[in-house]
Amino acid sequence: MDRISITGGAKLHGSIPISGAKNAALPLMTAALLTDDGVTLDNVPRLSDVTQLLRILSNHGVDHKIAGRLAGQTTETGQTIDLSARQIVDTTAPYELVSRMRASFWVIGPLLARMGLAKVSLPGGCAIGTRPVDLYLQALERLGASIEIEAGYVIAAAPKGLKGAEIFFPKVTVGATHTALMAAVLADGRSVIHNAAREPEVVDLAGLLNKMGARITGAGTATIEIQGVSRLHGARHSVLPDRIETGTYAMAVAMTGGDVVLENARYDLLKSAFDVLQRIGVTVEKQENGVRIARNGAGVSSADVTTQPFPGFPTDLQAQFMALMCKANGVSHIRETIFENRFMHVQELARLGARIKLDGDMAVIEGVKSLTGAQVMATDLRASVAMVIAGLAAEGETVVHRVYHLDRGFEALEKKLQRCGAQVERISD
Ligand code: EPZ
Fold this sequence. Notes:
The protein has helices spanning 22-31, 48-60, 95-98, 108-115, 134-142, 174-184, 200-211, 243-256, 271-279, 318-325, 345-351, 381-392, 404-409, 413-418, and strands at residues 3-7, 12-17, 38-44, 63-66, 79-84, 92-93, 117-121, 146-150, 153-157, 166-168, 190-194, 215-217, 223-227, 235-238, 258-263, 283-287, 290-295, 304-306, 331-335, 355-359, 362-366, 371-372, 375-377, 394-395, 397-401, 423-427. By secondary structure, it is α/β, with parallel strands linked by helices. The termini are close together.
């Protein structure tokens, strides 16, 4: 199994191209199930989660073609994929496929909307919490589907088609908002989603759906209105830049010191985290085609952060921010409000010499003068990259095991860091 070795101490200088967002690419690809025309997606990141979703989609009958490199594309900046769901041959998403990636559960919305039937394996828990799907199912029931759970599968049926309805989410959920959107676009009549997720990835999905002929307004606000249509057609769409990758590299620069331009990054997608970085002494400068991050290496101040749905501080940057706070001047408090068990990185950061105490949903981090390299392993994608960030500023060598987590969500991680002067290497056995 591959490992990543990091020798800490180098400041980062140069530029890093920001890839298309994994968490936008996955729902956009899933939306291809809604039409028998072709959907072309540009700027799709080269990630194992994307490959896994292609496998799942092809099981339903979706053909795909990955275009050869186009003008202006590099091996670090995504690819173009044509998807065609001319005929859905199977409305079942089996356990073996869904259990590998939670987002594959999202096929339930478009399969049900287009075929009137979907049988999708329950995704199960994961390293960051229990992550139920009750709100997905309530939304689909509101749209007129009957739902049964049988032998670990959700069987959703609407033989006469879905009917527009008012959907009220008691808590903000990205995945259930995606699902409700993909189901309601082909429902008969008008739907309204109340307390919808406002994440940029929801806006990107609504953008593609509207290009396909859907009639959605209000995406990006808490109330989304959908006027159902009888058919969607093909479209072409470019995946929006990855705000979590952007924030991750911004925190790496804050940690090591240096001066890096994050090309294609969008400042407006990450204002909450940039505000915090500025408060602790990091230069964050919006540029024409990106964001410049600079820090003189003198360390950063401590800060208190609470994770929130967008536009708040993202849970997907919590682990990386904790790594940064490990060497901050002072004591920081990080409260995780989205997932109940997203502190698995604490033990691993402690192996590098970090001082962190956990108290329920709160981590208290006492900044230390130095971290020391060690062998570490993380249990999820964002926790793994937090270990890379810590390793960049630790003395000596840090080896991060289970690199397959990183390959799920960070395109060309080691190449992007190497080009800015980091001593990072992938070791394959
Ligand atoms: C998406 O997960 C992202 N995944 C996650 O990123 C991200 O952390 C999360 O949104 C929050 O921003 C993708 O986009 C592929 P939720 P999702 O439904 O949609 C509870 C990463 O590292 N809930 O917004 O699954 C749930 O348990 C990943 O890239 C219910 O209670 O998250 C959680 O506490 C990790 N019932 C909260 O809502 C439900 O039916 C928010 O989860 C659904 C959700």
